[in-house]
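Chapter review: from sequence to fold.
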Amino acid sequence: MAKVLITGGAGFIGSSLAKKLSELNFGVTVYDNLLRGNKLDKETLNNIEFVKGDVRDAAHLAECAKGCDVIIHFAAILGVDIVADNPIETMDVEAIGMRNVANAALECGVKKILYASTSGIYGHSAIEQAVSEEIIVDPRTSYAMAKRYNEIYLAALHEEKGIESVCLRFFNVYGKNQDNRMVIPRFFEQALANNPITVFGNGLQTRDFTYIDDTVDACIRLMEKSQGYNIVNIANEQEINIKYLAEQILDLTASTSEIKYIEAPIKRYDYEVERRVGSSKKLFEITGHKPKTLIREGLEAIYKTKYLTQV
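The token string follows.
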């Protein structure tokens, strides 16, 4: 069975992917600096190798890549407010980390790289339709620009050195192990405390929420089936407005909270788009599968597995 190195593998998506790969008997090494905690459960930790490290440490990362067939590069600075307050570190982690991942792959004979990109690359473009990978992108933030740079870097790496790669443009991934830097856990915590649910703007802005199990499944299928160099949306093709999302969480939790609409801080302006929904056509063409979990089903799963056990 293939051996996989996951940078940022103690984070939300990375830990879920590490768990699933270990259950499928892949050899898994997780490489993470743990600055945002460790979401790996005890069972998974017992079945993988964990190494504490920073992707900006080239020699250490290359040492961990020895014998690996695939590097899954998820290490990043995350969270709109954190990224907005730390643009230089955000870009350093992306640019230096990618260079070190690429060099480790070349040095160690790694066959493929999976890279966590973002739907934020689309920016304000094509807001009247589901965005596909072929449209002209419009990155406006340091985070999105750095992600786009790395997509181009991987394309060049494939052309010049032959290393295959997949850039995964994630659309609002959610699930039970996510923390309150993201909207869904924040809404749940506010609702369960019967505090106002704070929504930026009028709540009519839309997003494409993709459940973590579907996301992990897509990653594994692309790792196994994608050839050459590809950019692929990981999207659910469900357009959900934020007001509806808040209402669903209020209903699930039987909360007495009210929805409070507030003005978004200026620093969040470039992150706030009115509409975003992704096309998963290319994902289906490559793998034969695409995300299928409805938003209500995903919210119910989070509530039952994370929050009901706390009350």
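Two observations follow directly from the output. Residues 214 and 291 are 5 Å apart (CA to CA). The first helix runs from residue 12 to 23.
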